[in-house]
Amino acid sequence: MSATALAVTGIVAVILLLAFGVNIGMAMMLVGFAGYAASVNIDAAYGVLRTEPVTQASNFVLTVIPLFIMMGNFAFASGMSAGLYNAGNKWLSRLPGGLACATIAACAAFGAICGSTTATAATMGVVAIPEMRKHGYASSLACGSVSVGGSLGIMIPPSSCFIIYGIAAEENIGRLFAAGILPGIVIAVFCILVIVVHVKIKPELATPPIPCSWKERFASLKGLIDVIILFVGIFVLMFSGVFTISEAAAAGAFLAMIICLVKRKLTLKSFIAVMGDSIKTTAMTYLIVIGAMVFGKFLAISKLPMSLASLVTSLDVSPYLVLTVIIIIYAVLGCLMDALPMVMLTIPIFLPVMLDLGFDKVWFGVVIVMVMMLGVITPPVGLNCYVISGVAKDVPLQTIFKGALPFTFALIAAIAVVTAVPQIALFIPNLLYG
């Protein structure tokens, strides 16, 4: 069997293992080991298996993962989400479906201190869904808006997906974080427009707007003080060059813990819960990274990514046609698997193709993360919809997916805009980093 055929067989084997419920990290590690042994020899494969876990576990860049996870967990424990939602509600109260619009805005802000789509959805769901339903909002709109709002957690920095993409693509994580800011805002604005139009067409989805006075609006800003301190503090340190990304992540985790302590939300029980959740999420992420690196060694020695890149560049077709096909593949994969393993599995294959076609590495990272946002609200996986189903236990899952459906148009429109105008993603990183 040729090296290319062996690599294709390995990819199919990983997909089959996932279909049987095998952990994605273990699946990639197992297939990578077997493929490397078949390509070289068993001793070389054992060498990869011995060195790669140690190499990744001691990789300084990867320390940002547990630190940002810890920061998000402390932010959740401190109750910042309630202040964000209240302020969003006051300032967007005049819009049709104002509470749902406030949910999108609050999710975008919470995503800036969390970095996880499921954590953002779960946190804001607990706050926003009961409030919207109490005011007569349809369950589909209430749950759908939180589902899509939670997906902003992987676009607005700090984003776990951008961290993993940066490691896989060997790209500066700070540039990726900066690149996600404007596209995240664009997506939030498009989602709010979808809510306004949807409620205008179907007024029964939400109660009429309840205007708030300017005094109430400015008073609501008090609930944002801790969020602003955390957000501004981290990003000033990160993008000013005073701290590295890892140091800024450590400062963010410490600052979030202090805020939690000052607000008297940090008890021994909550501290143990925060640390336990952080350890579990970090262990899961590291296993995916290690498995993907072993699998990547196998793909590299098979030369499949380079062969694919050469084949695509030799075709007499538009680079944007190739990009469109890859986006469609990501959209389909996003319906079948979680975002982090999808990044680690596909980047070694598709990134060389994009680079050979002349596309920017940072911009491509933003585009595929935007496509992944579609995956967390569409069946059969639709991870955020399942999270919201756990929060709103009396709402049928099909109702949640139905509520999320209109927002797919907002995401598709945002992907089209950022694809057509790459400077939306590249303006801030170019401004900060040159």
Beta strands, count: 0
Largest sheet: none
Helix-strand sequence: HHHHHHHHHHHHHHHHHHHHHH
**Proportion of beta-strand residues:** under 5%
Question: Could you walk me through the main structural features you see in this protein, from its secondary elements to its overall organization?
Answer:
This protein has one domain. 78% of the residues lie in helices and 0% in strands. The longest helix is centred in the middle third of the chain and has 35 residues. It is mainly α. The mean pLDDT is 84. It has 22 helices and no strands.
Name the descriptors.
mainly alpha, 434 residues
Task: Summarize the entry for a quick read.
By secondary structure, the protein is mainly α. The protein contains 22 helices and no strands.
What's the SSE blueprint?
Layout: H1 3-19, H2 24-39, H3 42-57, H4 64-78, H5 80-91, H6 98-111, H7 117-134, H8 139-151, H9 160-169, H10 173-179, H11 181-201, H12 214-220, H13 225-240, H14 245-262, H15 268-302, H16 304-314, H17 319-334, H18 339-356, H19 361-375, H20 383-391, H21 397-420, H22 423-433
